[in-house]
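ingest -> validate -> predict -> emit
validate: passed (alphabet ok, no gaps, 297 aa)
predict: started
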Amino acid sequence: MAALLAGLGTAGAAGLLGTSQSVSTSAFCQQYKCTLLGNGGREWLYDLKVPGSQLLLVQRESSEPGSRVTEVSLLSDNDEVNAELDRKTFGDVQKMALGFVSNTGRLESCYALDGATYRVMADAPNERTRRIYCDWDEAYTRFVIEADRNFLARTAPASVPTTGPTKLNNWYFSGCYVAGSASEDLPTGKPARCLLVVTTKGAASQVVRAEFQYEIEYVQNGQYVKKILPEKEYWWPGRVQKALDPRVTQQGRTVKADLSLAIRNVPGRRVISLNTIAKLTFANGAVKTAYEPLTVR
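emit:
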């Protein structure tokens, strides 16, 4: 259905390094208008809409978007070097990743590296961070914030319970596809298919019914509005789904809902968020609800 979405969450004061927080909804990405260029394996690459030519590269523990951030890098194009711009942007990257700025010194020595060496800019600025360093190749100079492996091991999430009542463990949007291109956000005026991923804990059970409803947040004529849209969408095994209806699949403890979403352009209205309310009914009788925002740009 045509829906509208997504809350503007921000990385917490402690920063997102070593956490499973979203990058695209961080204050940094709101300021720099991050655009997802693509992801492969554990890495997500974003374009930054600023003067000059800079990219943000985020590495996570696994290919799951909800896994923890292990490395954050600013990539500066060697053909358009601007040390002052890189210094400012990397300071903001540190605020996003660490919650504070550890190194704002001169970066000129990073551009002079030969590709075979790197320069440490800060050692262990906090318990979550192994180091901040820069390196160089023919295309980009990289400014890297690397998580501490001992911290990651010490704070690894506990194993998921496999007994007891069926409950939802976590849920998130893994991204959207707009005209065949990947995006972390929902664009205004363009239809998209967005994937909501839900994992469970406790007793394993199959989803036998899914109900989806949407809540929209927007600003119009200076007034903030938040309301639940009346329409609902449904899925259950054997139901004939139309082209824009939700599609639900399940593999083990992972449930994936492929949702058709679209935000109409309305003059004078700026949509902030479309929040999905997913009500899942399991074969063992458990009924659980996930509430998840998706950023609209």
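The chain has two domains: 27-154, 167-295.
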